[in-house]
Amino acid sequence: MSIAVISDTLASMIRIATPLMLMALGGLLCQRAGVFNIALEGFSLVGAFAAIAVVQFTSGNVYMGLLGAMVIGAVYSALFALFITKFKADNIIASIAMNMLGMGLTSYLLRAMFDVQGAYSPDKIQKLEMITIPLIKDIPILKCISGQSIVTYFAIAMIIVIYIMLFKTKRGLGICAVGESEEAAKTAGVRPVLVKWEVILMSGALSGLAGAYLSTVSVSQFSENVIQGRGFNAFTALVFGNAHPVFSTLVTLLFGLADAIGIRIELVGINISPSIIKMFPFLFAILALAVSSYTAKLKMKGVIGHKKKKEKTA
Amino acid sequence: MQNKENKRMLAAAGVVGRQIGLIIIALVLATVFLAVSGYEPMAIINGIIDGITVDIAGTVRWATPLILAGLAICVTYKAEVFNLGVDGQLYMGAAAATAVAVNIPASMNQVAALLLVFLAAMIAGALFAMVPAIMKVYLGTNEVVSTLLLNFVATLYIEYLVTGPLRDPAAGTNLNASQVLNENTWLPRISFFEPSSANIGFYIAIVVMAVLTFIFFRTAFGHEIKIVGSNPVLAKYAGMKPKKTILQVMAMSGAIAGIIGAVEVTAVQHRLLAGFNPDFGFSGIVVSLLANNNPIGVLFSGIFFGALQNGGINMERITDVPSAVTEIVTAIIFITISAKFVLPKIKRKMAEKRPASKGGK
Asked: Model-level pTM?
């Protein structure tokens, strides 16, 4: 393999991992605050649709699309937050309901607003320009970081922001405290309900952006299966990464790599069915899940196990 | 004694009343939704009414897989295990059913052939359910995530089968499907409902329901499932083996899911089609929750959701109202049910807290 091929594969790895990163970052905030959020899938589906709808109504402005997706993603996630905090809904069931509602709403609105079924591409869409970074673009392998879209750089910035917020600020301490023990957090003056609203809305906005990336940057259309389990993959990544911003991001990069290698195999023309290649990220995620749960079992109960146990004894 | 019986009846009536309330809320919301987006507002309600009066056949056709899916969910739910992988397991069941059916000689006795096909589907479904079950029991993996991921693996595997090994060579380039099965492996349709594809899978669903009801309420194993679900520590002290119980309920759930796959292939499609499953597994969760995870209740809630699905499809055919609105109704019922869960807990907490503080709000 030549260096050009490697750096090409790495560049597509980053491109593929960008939406996963955004979703995992939102999801890990929820995880830290003790909200089991597998609704990332539904949030991003709504975001993907919102982006295309906004692009259509602003005659092709993709930046408005990205922004609109974040806002609408957050609004949609507010419903989840409402049920989790106000009505004390079961996290898992509410998440699945949100995913289902996302599927129903988007395919309904696809018919109601654009009168099409399955997929829709806006009349006009401006292509998001790729940003080249002056110095890095000349370094052989590292140049994969250059030439990405603004969303990728935003995701990288968010890793740093969330890392600092979680581990260096009082607010981050509050989030983790709510996840550890709501009662203790309450006595320390943190309001769990507020914290949960905050993290769920953030994950809604980030997932919305992830969906927008998939529908407006990766391809230029919304289709009903545009997310295709990426939300669940992102969730696996944050479980494997122990809800740590940096580790979880690294895991999403690994998932991206599995996908990128699959695409490369297809390009080279090795005779494997594309359906089998598309399975790679999922098989990889299941393996990651098994490894992480096993190591967590060996050490001590992980975030999820811990929480579940607590619920049962309560 | 009489008093106790009365109380139980009242409680049951209360549960049923509340569930009907949820359904009405969801339907009203959907009606508002339709009105706002400029469609005929009564479309969905008319669809359901037609589904239980004029077009019972279609309702039975859709109720069959939904009842079975609901049963598959309620088995595991009692043991506090979330099997979100019914979709994947039913795909694997369908794949095994097809693989066996295409290899059965056309001269074989129909009953024997069908038994073989269904057995294969049940085994395949159960084995595929064993993957997350073993991961949960021995590695401590959260089954919610693993079953969700395995659904995608199964879906892609079917895609691979119908574009590769099982592909019908005679099919056009646009159709990815296996060859049409021999008639001796077709599950008979109910002749009364001809020409609809309502089939005797409905009777199979009722038999499965009866078996589960018996297991839950009349056997030691059923009791064990409930104890393991409500208090695994106690179960262990009482000499039960929670791990074994979890494996058993997952196997049962997977086998029931396999039956759905076999019914869909042998009675409805008569061949394996990529993506034939409109998320029966997820709908099964609502079916089971709406029935309070009671197998007998699942029968009724399955019929309700069957009528809803059927009504949505008819509605789309007659008017231009998108059938996705049924998915919205299902999701609304889903999310409102999730809120119900903790109601007794909240009440208890409020009772405890009232004298001490003003509470968390």
From this structure: 0.89
